[in-house]
């Protein structure tokens, strides 16, 4: 008998004894089993609530408020973008412009909005000293 089959046999024996004990306790004292299950669920629920209470108060609320503030600032800066559903705008544009009609050149060249990205100046000209590594 190798080690793997021996551990599997021990595992099956333990699970079988646990099932036998559970069935016998349900037959002899069903209210005791229900009471024990209720106590276990209550203890797990209390630990879960304590965990949530301490984890939410530290960083999650702060990061959520920071996200909302950044989203509001971004929407003020860039404005609200009106996006039509793809199916409606796609079919309308294809059916009305099938004749090869050219649009107004000024409407085709729209002014680009300035990017919201910023360049961080750094030390670009400084050479790395490879001998110090």
Automatic annotation (TrEMBL):
Domain of life of the native organism: Bacteria
UniProt keyword terms in alphabetical order: Membrane, Transmembrane, Transmembrane helix
InterPro entries xref list: SA1362/YqhP-like
Residue segments, region Disordered: 58-133
Keyword Transmembrane: yes
UniProt biased composition (Basic residues): 69-80, 124-133
Transmembrane region(s): 7-27, 33-51
Keyword Nuclease attributed: no
Polar residues bias: start-end ranges: 84-97
NCBIfam families (alphabetical): SA1362_fam (NF041554)
Name of this protein: Permeases of the drug/metabolite transporter (DMT) superfamily
């Amino acid at each position: 008998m190798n080690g793997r089959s021996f551990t599997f046999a021990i595992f099956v024996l333990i699970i079988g004894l646990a099932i036998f004990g559970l069935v016998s306790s349900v037959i002899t004292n069903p209210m005791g089993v229900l009471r024990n299950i209720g106590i276990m669920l209550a203890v797990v629920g209390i630990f879960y609530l304590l965990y949530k209470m301490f984890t939410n108060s530290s960083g999650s609320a702060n990061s959520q408020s920071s996200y909302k503030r950044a989203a509001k600032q971004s929407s003020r800066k860039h404005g609200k973008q009106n996006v039509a559903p793809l199916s409606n705008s796609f079919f309308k544009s294809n059916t009305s412009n099938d004749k090869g009609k050219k649009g107004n050149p000024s409407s085709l060249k729209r002014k680009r909005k300035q990017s919201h990205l910023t360049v961080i100046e750094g030390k670009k000209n400084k050479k790395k000293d490879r001998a110090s590594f």
